[in-house]
Amino acid sequence: MAVLAGHRFPITFDELFPRGFLVITVERANDYTNGKSEPAVCKLTGRPVWTVQGTDPSVKG
Fold it and tell me: Which domain holds residue 20?
């Protein structure tokens, strides 16, 4: 069964990352249409979309 694009899973931050989340970088996301890069905007809320790179401190490895 496929998940539709834009589906939002009902989960809290604390459920997903019980020991927190360590942020490494934060950048404004981009949409690429017709070869042009434009700042990404959420289709549901109209708010800016951000790309966050980080790590979960509870993961061993």
Answer: 13-55
